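Human
Can I borrow your eye for a moment on a structure tokenisation matter? Give me a protein, with the fold worked out from its sequence. Write it directly below this note and I will take it from there.

Assistant
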Amino acid sequence: MIKEFKAFVLRGNVVDLAVAVVIGAAFGAVVTAFVNYLLTPLIAIPGKYSFMNLTFTIRHSVFSYGRFLDALISFVLIAAAVFFFVIKPINALAARRRKGEEAEEGTRDCPECLSEIPALARRCAYCTTEVQPAA
């Protein structure tokens, strides 16, 4: 049983997943720190920094809508930070790499979605459009 467990743990995809989780947690901490310490204080420039104390009460039930606003603003700032500082640069690098690359031998572009498909394909794997096989 120990040998099977060792084989399971040392399998490539398990180790890759473990590394991805650790790197993801570290990256999450960096992005959260960036948002909390650099972007969120920008909100304080025109007005309040924290909405945490904003509440209203109905029949002795306290609704802390300020905490929701803080969480919503943090989410939007984190999403914007990831988009502008991770996704956009990676997309730009990928576009640069693709520039000048020609299609592989034996492939062609789908006439409908312009995805690269095998030359002998009868249906596009991406948009499922029927295509005529290349001669």
Observations:
- Helices lie at 2-9, 12-39, 41-44, 65-98.
